Amino acid sequence: MADQRQVLMIPKAIQNGVRQMWMLQLRFKKMFGKGVYSTLHHPRFRAGYDFLLLRKHVDEELNAQAEFWTNIQNMSPEAVKSLIFGKKVKRKKFNYKL
């Protein structure tokens, strides 16, 4: 963006949108935990997701991420929760005696 600003006048609103789309690419790598919810509800999610789909045509390693984010958009909230967090494992309590 810095190189392009020397040649073109790019409005701040466009710069911020592009920057957020790129930042979402990092968040798409995380496919578990609470971060998935915040990514799904991000204002620029759809733009970032579309950019991810374009990027997967160049880099085949992104196919799994693209498939995950495609599927999760059509799931029920309960299914999303179970997919992200998985089955809870109960921890055993230990009695420590000295």
Question: What does this molecule look like?
Answer:
With 98 residues, this protein is mainly alpha-helical. Helices cover 60% and strands 0% of the residues. The longest helix is centred in the first third of the chain and has 16 residues, at 12-27.
Tag the structure with descriptive keywords.
98 residues; mainly alpha
Q: If you compute it from the alpha carbons, what radius of gyration comes out, rounded to the nearest whole angstrom?
A: 19 Å
Quaternary state of the chains: single chain
Number of beta strands? 0
Average pLDDT score: 86
Q: What portion of residues is helical?
A: 55-70%
Q: With helices defined by DSSP (H or I, 4 residues minimum), what is the helix count?
A: 6
Quick structural overview:
By secondary structure, the chain is mainly α.
How is the secondary structure organized here?
Blueprint lengths: L1 H6 L4 H16 L7 H6 L4 H12 L6 H10 L4 H9 L13
Helix pairs in contact: 2-4, 4-5
